[in-house]
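fyi for ur records
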Amino acid sequence: MHSLGIVASVVLSLQSGLPSDPRDPMPSPWKDPGFAKFLWIQSPNFGPRPEGAIVDTVVVHSTVIPTLEQTTNAFLRESSQVSAHFTIGRDGSYVMHVSTFDRAWHAGVSVDPNGRTNLNHYSIGIELVNLNDGKQPYPKEQVQVLKWIIAGLKRRFPLKQIVSHEFIAVPAGRKSDPAGFPWESLKDLNLPMYFGKNPATDKS
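which gave:
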């Protein structure tokens, strides 16, 4: 179990090729690690980023799956062909599934506000445990950890935008997450944000 404070050092150690391996086994029985603490439970569903890809985008998702444990199990199944870099639980616990230097499989067919396709190449996917019904709130602990993770990523990558899965999904309407997310809570990260329906792809 790791604290949020070591995210930067984990990222730097991966970049420099240090021999330490912070990855964890799936706990049995499961126990959420606690506010601002995380487990690195490696998903098999990832690959290399294209050569020269610059990571500059964060994609925010909702899991629809109701718990951190169930989401982690889903990303551990190779047959699911889905993953994200992080999933944040409702109490601010979180799991890292894929190194940010690798390509997670979270965005699907997608286009960004500038017309670039296949956001998996140059984005970091962060899942929030939420039913995505537009009614279940996003607890302050969950939102705070999301902000901390993005702030940490800004120190390593030249981030230029935060987007919702709904905004970038193609065709329009394929995704609706994260429904009901309080986007104003991320304003002090000082990054452009794109969420809701994308007028460039929504023809309804």
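Residues 2-194 form a domain with the Lysozyme-like fold (CATH 3.40.80.10). thats all i got for now
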